[in-house]
Specification:
Shape: globular
CATH class of the largest domain: Alpha Beta
CATH topology of the largest domain: Aspartate Aminotransferase, domain 2
Helix content: 25-40%
Order of helices and strands: EEEHHHEHEHHEHEEEHEEEHHHEEHEEEH
Oligomer: single chain
Number of helices: 13
Largest sheet: 7 strands, mixed
Strand content: 15-25%
CATH architecture of the largest domain: 3-Layer(aba) Sandwich
Length: about 400
């Protein structure tokens, strides 16, 4: 019996090697990985450029802490800033920590600028923002909070895309931020409505309410652009990043407008490991690949192809195809667990989500042949389960 905590319901799989879109288990069986570690290894397993960067950095210097200047951290921050909206960047170790930092920044901004009178944060029902006390309080799912009550009471959850509901809350005068996901990953691939986001962004700008975009799962190419907010023609005040940022090396980041970032001055927040040499070297390599000419265009083309083929496969069945870019999935009412397990039997790895949704996240680098292979395994699984018209 292992001494490890029992807080994960793990599948009976142990992997020992990864390469590109494939994982090999301890029996030698090879699986097609269309989960990517929950949208983390977006460039596939052991991408040669990332591996080379990690090896080179590990031979030189891994960690010094943020007591000292870290040149590669500054270079990475400048690159992310240019990829985004010109914000300042804070590095941490995970998506939860990135969201925690964003919420702390919103709180200190409201406290200092509005004498503590503006502290409430609006989020969506069915959202997911993390599992620290602050971020689980922000999360709009009761199951995440079960057993940890009472949670922080300055979060208000509204129905997704409910602009009138947002305005009604904002008019109370104590709201400092609106925190949203462009696509609710854990919540079942529910997308933000363009009209809502545009109107909410405009309202936030006019009323000094911070628009925080949680890009933990949508960032780094998953939706077909480096950041998902770019699809909507809006500019957030703060974005949070993690997962695909370093292709498997633990890392997170928060980017904020410089005039907001300055409220988090020396001593107000920190991290020992955040933005160390090794993680930054990996993230620099990720950006090298993702900013190559034509890379994102190819991701969008693959995403369109993959989703169209899924819609053809599941046409006139009970299955609903969801998603944007390579952030795709299917809703299989009442059969999510059976489908995932049967797909594993067939050699395909996927990821569960809320609302009977199965997340299907191929590596952005997957070939069309690998996409077709995965589509074939999805169809085979559906047929064996006699889903819909199969």
């Amino acid at each position: 019996m292992s001494a490890i905590f029992k807080n994960y319901a793990r599948y009976p799989l142990t992997f020992v090697k990864g390469e590109g879109a494939r994982l090999t288990d301890d029996t030698g069986r090879v699986f097609l990985d269309f989960g990517c570690g929950i949208s983390v290894v977006n460039l596939g397993h052991c991408h040669p450029k990332v591996t080379e960067a990690i090896q080179k950095q590990a031979e030189t210097l891994i960690h010094t802490s943020n007591l000292y200047h870290i040149p590669v951290q500054e270079q990475l921050a400048d690159r992310l800033s240019r990829c985004g909206f010109g914000g300042d960047v804070f590095f941490c170790n995970s998506g939860m920590e990135a969201n925690e930092a964003a919420l702390k920044l919103a709180r200190i901004y409201g406290n200092k600028k509005y004498d503590g009178k503006r502290l409430r944060v609006i989020t969506f029902e069915n959202s997911f923002h993390g599992r620290s006390f602050m971020t689980l309080s922000a999360t709009g799912q009761d199951k995440i909070k079960k057993g940890y009550e009472p949670v922080a009471d300055f979060f208000t959850h509204i129905q997704m895309n409910d602009f009138a509901g947002f305005v009604n809350e904002a008019k109370k005068g104590d709201v400092i931020a609106l925190m949203i996901e462009a696509v609710q990953g854990e919540g079942g691939l529910a997308p933000i409505d363009r009209e809502f986001l545009v109107n909410a962004s405009d309202y936030c700008a006019k009323n000094d309410i911070l628009l925080i975009m949680d890009e933990i799962q949508t960032g780094f190419g998953r939706t077909g652009d480096i950041f998902a907010y770019k699809h909507f023609g809006v500019t957030p005040d703060i974005i949070t990043l993690a997962k695909g940022i370093a292709n498997g090396v633990p890392m997170g980041a928060m980017m904020a407008r410089p005039d907001i970032a300055e409220y988090m001055s020396a001593g107000t927040h920190g991290t020992t490991f955040g933005g160390n040499y090794l993680a930054c070297a990996a993230a620099m390599a990720v950006l090298d690949v993702m900013t190559e000419r034509g890379f994102m265009q190819e991701v969008r083309e693959k995403g369109d192809y993959f989703k169209t083929r899924m819609e053809e496969i599941f046409y006139q069945t009970e299955v609903t195809v969801l998603g944007i870019g390579m952030m795709t999935g299917i809703k299989v009412p009442g059969k999510q667990k059976d489908f995932i397990n049967k797909a594993i039997e067939n050699g395909l790895l996927t990821v569960p989500a809320g609302n009977d949704v199965i997340r299907i996240y191929p590596p952005l680098t997957a070939s069309y042949e690998e996409l077709d292979e995965g589509l074939g395994l999805l169809e085979k699984t559906a047929r064996e389960l006699e889903i819909g018209g199969f």
